[in-house]
Design goal:
Elements: H1 6-20, H2 34-60, H3 64-84, H4 97-111, H5 114-119
Helix pairs in contact: 2-3, 2-4
Amino acid sequence: PAVYGSLTCVQFAEDLAMTHKLPGSPGPLLPTSPVLRARARMWSEWVDKNICAHFYNVLIHKDQEQRMEDFAKLRKGLATFQENITGPFFFGESLSLVDIAAIPWCYRILTCRIVTLYRGPSFDL
C-alpha cells in the first residue's frame, strides 16, 4: 500500500533513515522524550490547521471579507508559532518534524510573498 500525506511521508523517510543508518541523515526529526515526541506531532498538525489552511483560504476565497478573516487567522497563527520557537529551530538547536511542517509555508508566505503577490498590499505581512 502507498504511503501518503506530507508529514506521514517525512516520518516514513526518517524511520527508513534511522532503521537503515543511512549516511548523511541529519538525525532524528522527533525528540527522544515521549512527551516531546507527542508535542512535535501536535505542533505539526497545528501548523497544518493554523498556517497552511488559512494560507490556502486567503488564496481561494472569492469574498474579500472572508479573505480578510482568514488573513487575520493566518497572521495570528504565524505569531503564535513564532512565540513558541525556542531557538533557531522549533525545539532549540535541532531540526524537527515541526520545522519540516512549517518551513514550506513560511517560505511561501514570508520569502516568496505569495499572499501579497496574489491578494495585494492589504495582505502584506
